[in-house]
Design brief:
Layout (H helix, E strand, L loop, with lengths): L2 H10 L1 H8 L6 H8 L4 E6 L5 H15 L4 E5 L3 H18 L5 E4 L3 E4 L4 E4 L15 E5 L6 H7 L3 H4 L2 E6 L6 H9 L4 E5 L9 H11 L1 H7 L14 H7 L24
Parallel strand pairs: 1-7, 1-8, 2-5, 2-6, 6-7
Antiparallel strand pairs: 3-4, 4-5
Helix pairs in contact: 1-2, 3-4, 4-5, 9-10
Length: 264
């Protein structure tokens, strides 16, 4: 196949791009994410399942084939964002080691087409200067401050870009859990350790013994479990609430001071 025809196929299909340009064979769920056109995606994935690798390929594909695009990589810290950025950079070098760049440093690069990939710290105060990104990837989203998520979402208002939140669970709290639990706008992908062919059962058996059920269920089974410090289980609280019981409201004109005349 001619290089022009192959390049066209890679531009139209990120899976072909991964296979032919990056020498990477995606798992079935990874291929599904790469080809997805959903603008809001949740990845609830086990550790070492390949979620960072997949989104790094998607970030590079966007930057390479969409001139002038902006890809933002966020996480709880600059160091963690840098790890995801390093994956994108490694794939970029595999794509073309001699690719000339307008800008290239430890936190961002810019292609000759004007496309940029930028990694961000997990602070809402320092991300508000960006506008109209084509793709935002929030890594370890269950551990990212909710204010950061609120700060980046409005950036997509004009560009109608794509937002991907990926993480292992971190209890039943925060924007990642709320989106997974009740966010109707999101597509959802769950990949437990048992679904990953590169993780052996012997390793998982060892991890279950070492970590205990609470952490094992979150890290490898992708379950949103109650906090270890929580006094009551969420399921017990939910069962205690009933729409059949009407709340008791005391009219404001009947409220009296507890200790006599307050005005005295």
């Amino acid at each position: 196949m001619g290089s022009l025809a192959l390049d066209l196929r890679c531009a139209l299909d990120p899976v072909t791009f991964a296979r032919e340009k990056l020498d990477f064979e995606p798992d079935e769920w990874q291929a599904g994410l790469l080809r997805s056109t959903d603008t809001r995606s949740l990845l609830n994935c086990s550790r070492q399942s390949g979620k960072s690798t997949t989104t790094a390929i998607l970030a590079l594909h966007t930057a390479y084939y969409v001139p002038g695009s902006l890809v933002l990589l966020g996480s709880p810290s600059f160091r963690q964002s840098g790890e995801l950025f390093a994956k994108v950079t490694d794939f970029r070098k595999r794509l073309d080691p001699d690719l000339r760049l307008e800008e290239d440093n430890k936190t961002s690069f810019e292609l000759k087409t004007g496309s940029r990939v930028v990694c961000l710290p997990g602070s809402a105060d320092t991300v508000r200067g960006f506008s109209a990104p084509d793709l935002i990837i929030e890594d370890e989203a269950a551990f990212v401050d909710d204010a950061f998520n609120r700060a980046v979402r409005p950036m997509l208002a004009v560009s109608q870009g794509r937002l991907i939140l990926m993480s292992t669970p971190n209890g039943k709290r925060g924007h990642f859990f709320e989106a997974w639990d009740a966010g109707n706008e999101w597509s959802r992908t769950k990949v437990s350790a048992q679904d990953c062919p590169r993780i052996t059962q012997a390793f998982l058996d060892s991890e279950r013994k070492a970590l205990g059920e609470y952490f094992y269920r979150q890290e490898y089974e992708c379950q949103f479990v109650d906090s270890a410090h929580q006094l009551f289980r969420s399921s017990d609280i939910e069962r205690a609430i009933s729409d059949e019981v009407k709340p008791l409201f005391l009219p404001t004109n009947e409220v009296k001071p507890l200790f006599g005349d307050q005005a005295a």
